[in-house]
Design goal:
The complex is a heterodimer of chains A (about 120) and B (about 120). Chain A is mainly β and about 120 residues long.
């Protein structure tokens, strides 16, 4: 069964360091999402790609976060410098198209759990 | 303003019994969609069920059904015949138009932690 892949699964870093997360969506999925999930909360959208283009990054802290999907397939989310408040689960998801509905839901990866010390 | 409200931080149910997880939403868009996801302790979000605002019938998927009351803006998840493996966080989410204007995004509630007791 096709899955969304993410790595690493766990990352521990010190504040002010740079971290990067990688996501490989399900083959053929044009839309890719990065979410941040703080403990005890629901996921919050950080950035959304349609193919290689960003279509929504309104909640992305652009002073320290960046995201790219250069060839419209896999994607990288970077934080530089990391802050204590960035400790969270970072989830990647993909969908066939951007029009979310029954039969075109988002599929999520296992996430990267980030701890900033 | 919170768009998805899940008022039950935690719920307990006995194995083999049914349980209802509450979700209310707020939107002025006549076209919207509601999703339920399950998140086990491993962290991955698993899609359970979808209800479109124009769907005439309540959605069902195996042991999951959605009690959709449009006038009350509620979309409660019903799990029948609970199993130990159902113990997890459950999130209600609403599809809405994103800042790009032509894209859709999901807004999630805070979730309900369901514990199934043997």
């Amino acid at each position: 069964e096709a899955e969304v892949a993410q790595s690493p699964r766990y990352k521990i870093t010190e504040k002010s360091q740079a971290v990067a997360f990688w996501c490989d969506p399900i083959s053929g999925h044009a839309t890719l999402y990065w979410y941040r999930q703080i403990l005890g909360q629901g996921p919050e959208l950080l950035v959304q790609f349609q193919d290689e283009s960003v279509v929504d990054d309104s909640q992305l802290p652009k002073d320290r976060f960046s995201a790219e999907r250069l060839k419209g397939v896999d994607s990288t989310l970077k934080i530089q410098p990391a802050e204590l408040g960035d400790s969270a689960m970072y989830l990647c998801a993909s969908s066939l198209t951007r029009k979310l509905a029954g039969g075109n839901e988002q599929f999520f990866g296992p996430g990267t759990r980030l701890t900033v010390l | 303003a919170q768009k998805i409200t899940q008022t039950q931080p935690g719920m307990f149910v006995q194995e083999k019994e049914a349980v209802t997880l509450d979700c209310t939403y707020d939107t002025s868009d006549p076209s919207y969609g509601l999703f339920w996801y399950k998140q086990p302790s491993s962290g991955e979000m698993i899609f359970l069920i979808y209800q479109g605002s124009y769907d005439q019938q309540n959605a069902t998927e195996g042991r999951y059904s959605l009690n959709f009351q449009k006038a009350r803006k509620s979309a409660n998840l019903v799990i029948s015949a609970s199993q130990l493996g159902d113990s997890a966080m459950y999130f209600c989410a609403m599809r809405e138009v994103g800042s790009g204007g032509s894209n859709y995004k999901l807004t999630f509630g805070k979730g309900t932690l369901l514990t199934v007791n043997p």
